[in-house]
Amino acid sequence: MDRWYRNGVIYSLDIETFQDSDDDGVGDLRGLADRLDYLGRLGVDTIWLNPCHPSPRRDGGYDITDYYGIDPRFGSLGDFAELVSQADEAGIRIVLDLVLNHTSDEHPWFRSALSGREAPHHDWYVWADREPADRWDGAVFPGSEEETWTYAEAVGRWYRHRFYRFQPELDVEHPQVRAELAKIVTFWLRLGVAGFRIDAAPFLIESRGRQDFGLLRRLRETASWQRGNAVLLAEANVPEDELLVPVTFVAWAFERRDSGEITAELVFRTFFVGGVLGVLGASVLETYLLYPSTWLYVGVGLIEEAVKLVALALLTRGLAVKSMRDGIILGATVGFGFSAFESAGYALTSLFTARGLSLSDLVTTELLRGLLAPVGHGLWTAILGGLLFAWSTREHFVLSARLALAFLGVALLHALWDSMSAIALVITLVLTGQVAQFDPRGLVVPPGDVTTVYTVTTWAGLGVIALIGVLWLLVLVRRSRRERRAPHWTYRVPATRTPATGRY
Q1: Fewer CB within 10 Å, N- or C-terminus of the chain?
Q2: Integer Cα distance of 498 and 491 in angstroms
């Protein structure tokens, strides 16, 4: 199957503001079609369209009144079909934003639901007979909308809306709702779209305190049946525990800096730029991570540590004073940012590879990543940051043989860290005498009756690797407190512009 989306260049586009073909002040489908060659020259091979269905547009089109139509301001369904056809000729795919969590309160379904409790579409929405205890909890946009339930006098019941009150929430567990949503997916795929970006995906898997992937599985099956290489993209929330460790460290480290040049702005910038690089790195490397091997993990370690080190150097090249302690702090900040944002990508991946895994396995994996992943990335880049800053000056970064050896050592620890699940699986199979099992994708998975042994082995292995990193870091911190001789083998890289040339 053609997994084009792994290396695709996806351009998010709002039709309303992109190109107006008839001078009415509103962008439209014909205007977009006229600019396909331009987008192609930019290297775009996929266009992700913001919501373009009929809508009162009180929430940018995310309040839909007709899933099978096109907003008249943008054109007609025929214009859309023509756009898809021209895009296909230009080698560009079209992906639609699909809003399944809720509709507009002006949608015919909801108007039907308000006509009575026995109405055909009444049970398509989430209702409560009494004022819900969580009426004031869980609003997505606090400040704009404080409540998550609104009373409908017409039927004497409360309807749920975690966004705005004009966006009543669909009961996505209802069989008829699921069938209709699958039909919507079929309709647009038959018109030629290449897939969908699913809005508010985390809400679609919530089910009475547990996670239910049934709807997403059905949509995936429908999409695959209609178009084998169709893609479903989705939002992914980063669990709080995956940000707790990084943010706590950044706050703690800021108070222990050596130089007043390390401002809150610099720390903030290193954290988030590292995070962005993490997301980009995860996207680029995803293709190679699906079939892990020992050497592949080493390659990933080398690439990711190099990217983080370069990011650190670029962000700190203007510092007048560079100390080992400050290098450790800023290096760890980049690493923690990398980990925090990379976790969002892994959460998305786990969302769509949950088939065949039990909920307990998924939770165990995400808990493990949330607690330990930030530690690994923070340690590795802290070590390299300390050695990079150790002998550097305002004018030059000093690259030493010690830094090069540390880079190789850190990359190896990184590789061991990333491959620990595979190593733990081999150890588990050897200790228990079990035979390897394979999932539908051909990947080895731990037998169900040895999951505990596998999990403990994984935790223990990661703990040992983390301990090595901590001890290494403590040695660097101790050395930073006493005078150090300059290394013999060094290479100087200009860190600032020279006044005469304006170049580095």
Answers
A1: N
A2: 18
